[in-house]
Design goal:
Blueprint lengths: L2 E6 L7 H5 L7 E3 L5 E5 L2 E8 L2 E7 L4 H8 L6 H9 L3 H9 L10 H10 L5 H15 L2 E4 L2 E4 L4 H4 L4 H6 L5 H13 L5 H6 L3 H9 L6 H11 L10 H12 L9 H12 L3 H14 L1
Antiparallel strand pairs: 1-5, 2-3, 3-4, 4-5, 6-7
Helix pairs in contact: 4-15, 5-12, 11-12
The structure holds a DNA duplex (13 and 12 nucleotides).
DNA sequence: GCGCAGGGGGTCG
DNA sequence: CGACCCCCTGCG
């Protein structure tokens, strides 16, 4: 594939570090010059901010401008979203200032499902390691600037792995979950298309939860990070902590019920809850 | 330096 | 509610 280049100008809401470090993705790595290189679908891209320009370079499956517009959600007006959220309260206003360049990537559904099943009771360095090993073994190689990159394995490739094969990648107890979920798709008990076409958030969540290894939190991440459901509010330890500290003020944050937090998020942030979650998460975890 | 607990972006039974 | 694989990290 031929190398391409695309430059995005005058974009106020685009900071590579915010985008790649706000917890939505696992396959972007920082280079020595401060740029980021990552792989998604059959594209390998390097993203660099120079002055106010965003420079995208790499090998793409298609036209780089179209690929970037889709993946980096460039048709969504984040200035408008930030303005709306900033009006809600000072906390949100501050966290948005802190993570002003966050954007929600439009990630591949299959990759997101598998990646977030792996994320359960796990830490980021290990999650990244597992995904890299898995891609190297079951994905396709793409060479960019003399380095090898491996695509995220599709369900047919991953379907060739036994539970033992998966365990060997360091998946731990998640091996069986990945195996079973892959089987469910291969056996057409459920399809990516029906998930992509499901408009109703609650129905979609119910369908996702039928997958092995997908509970409420993982389902919400899948919906927010690959199905553009900006109204969902994934609750992990950090979000629970920040919501308790800001609004609920219970002594023991673990006593705060998920339902209470969900209702609060719905009431305060409504259809932008997912975005609010990202700004708060990034701000709190970094602080 | 190295060895050893502690705990991690939850889910399941 | 407790167990769960396995590293990754941090302290001794």
């Amino acid at each position: 594939m031929e190398e391409q280049r695309y430059i995005l100008k005058n974009c106020n809401s685009f900071e590579p570090v915010h985008i790649f470090d706000c917890g939505q993705c696992f396959r972007w790595n920082r280079e020595e010059d401060g740029s980021y290189t990552g792989i998604f679908k059959n594209n390998v891209l390097n993203v660099k901010k120079e002055n106010e320009d965003i420079i995208f370079e790499g090998v793409c499956d298609g036209d780089i401008e179209e690929v970037c517009k889709e993946y980096f959600d460039l048709n969504t007006d984040y200035e408008e979203i930030k303005a709306k959220l900033s009006n809600i309260d000072e906390y949100l206003k501050n966290s948005i200032e802190y993570g002003k360049g966050i954007r929600i990537l439009n990630q591949d559904l299959w990759e997101t499902i598998i990646s977030f099943i792996i994320s359960a009771n796990n830490n980021i360095p290990r999650i990244k390691g597992i995904i890299e090993r898995k891609s190297k073994k079951y994905g396709n190689k793409i060479i960019y600037k003399g380095k090898n990159y491996y695509t995220f394995p599709d369900m047919n490739s991953l379907g060739k792995a036994s539970v033992e094969d998966l365990r060997a990648l360091g998946l731990g107890f998640r091996d069986k979950r990945i195996y079973e979920t892959t089987r469910m798709f291969l056996d057409k008990e459920i399809t990516l298309e029906e998930l992509e076409n499901e408009k109703d958030t609650d129905t979609l969540r119910e369908k996702l939860i039928t997958l092995s290894g997908v509970g409420g939190k993982v389902a919400d991440c899948i919906m927010l990070f690959s199905l553009k459901k900006f109204d969902v509010f994934p609750i992990d330890v950090w979000v629970r902590r920040v919501m308790n500290e800001l609004y609920i003020k219970e002594d023991d944050e673990n006593k705060v019920s998920k339902t209470l937090i969900q209702n609060l998020a719905k009431e305060k942030y409504n259809d932008l809850a997912g975005l609010a979650q990202q700004y708060l998460f990034y701000w709190k975890r970094d602080a």
